[in-house]
Amino acid sequence: MTDAEIFDIETSYTGGRWAYEHLPERIREAYVEVVERAVDLIDSVRRALPQLPPIHFDFIHDGRVNALAFRAKGRYFIGITTGTLYMLRMVIGRMLSDPRTFVFVGQPDSEDADLPLVLNYIPDADAMADRGPAILTPKDSVRASFAWFLADQAIMFLVGHEIAHITRGHVDYLATKGGVGFKAQLEWLRENRSAATLERQCLEMDADRRSIVSRIDSLRLMHSNPVRPVPPWSPGSYEVGSIIRDWSASLNLLFRLFGDVRFSRSELNRLMYPPLPIRRALCDMWAWGITRDIWDPALKEVVADGLIHGRSYVEYAFADILGEQVSTEGLKTALGETGQEHMQKLVNHWNDNLVQSVKPFSYEF
Fold it and tell me: 0.90 exceeded by the pTM?
């Protein structure tokens, strides 16, 4: 049985494998591009961790924004839903086709000023496709290239997150506990009232952190290359503040696809994943700290500004395309007393308890 066949069987409960090979060439190329980038990332991880077995990457036919990692038939698999690609490209293409958004990129005035609003927005590709928003490509080539960059970096974070579930031992640890082939799904709004919610939130936190480390290190290596290419939206030079700003925008776009998700104290004990605003806040803190630790401590203010600007551009862009006021109540809650307490609770539980439990299953420790 091939990896693709195993993947199809194991994901049949949520749509099965998406046979992108049979699509028209223009559409197929978009999927092939993602596969190539994901395989490159997986291969780079396996070079760093030679004991890591092969990981098969594929797509799931499902309109929701989702991803998963699992083990079946003694093999590892990572899948991203077709809905993830659609929603990222629909939202990002619409944003960069609007002259009011990301005004530092290219020639915004070359874009249409009277595009219709994206109405009744929900993070589901099937529902949004039925409602009519087209996938737009910015007219300005520089803005089009930036749109590609944002989607690419968001997907690479997702793939990195799922790789971390494997390399950090999460998949095998939970499979052993459950006695079944556990699927570590990034189903970001799911609830569960079991006592295992804290543990699951810690594993998601750890996967986010590991993916952040990987992306920041990749950005550092790119910046240190004396012959690094300068992107078209940053003529002349591409310095650390701009690099962090653009990467931060890609990450915030991914989280913000779900809206300004608010949460209450009682929900913190029911969610299988840390509330999205808490994840965003944690990712910002890790990016700031990791950049200081592995790049240059002197960059702390530059990085902080880049993170703030990346997040702000995304919030204003969403408000523009949806015709709404900028809303950051979820993020404010995450940075308040309730959110801070929960973040510390997750960090403490991971450090004091869970890290030793997953260590025997990890390829990294």
Answer: yes
